[in-house]
Design goal:
Structural class: alpha+beta
Order of helices and strands: EHEEEHE
Number of helices: 2
Number of strands: 5
Shape: globular
Largest sheet: 3 strands, antiparallel
């Protein structure tokens, strides 16, 4: 199946989050996808939404996940397992 890794359970929303303890506000996320991310006044990434169901939003978040310099972006399944997308 094509699409971003970890999206094989297409009916289940994915939860997007930022680990503020490691985010340095580099702005890579905002530069790539300002519809999902912005750097807030505290100097950390802020999300425009946390629950993602649209395949384009999931693909965008996955792209940011792959390039965040501090690995602060998290994408997890919104089901009982709460497993991080891309985790074994």
């Amino acid at each position: 199946m094509s699409g971003p890794r970890g999206t094989e359970g297409r009916g289940t929303p994915l939860l997007l989050s930022i680990d503020a303890t490691v985010c340095t506000g580099a702005g890579t996320c905002e530069a790539m996808h300002p519809e999902l991310f912005r750097v807030g006044p505290e100097g950390h990434a802020v999300l425009s939404r946390t629950e993602l169901t649209d395949p384009q939003d999931i693909e965008a978040a996955t792209g940011v996940l792959d390039v965040c310099p501090t690995e602060a972006v998290r994408l997890t399944r919104a089901d009982a397992s709460e497993r991080e997308v891309g985790a074994p």
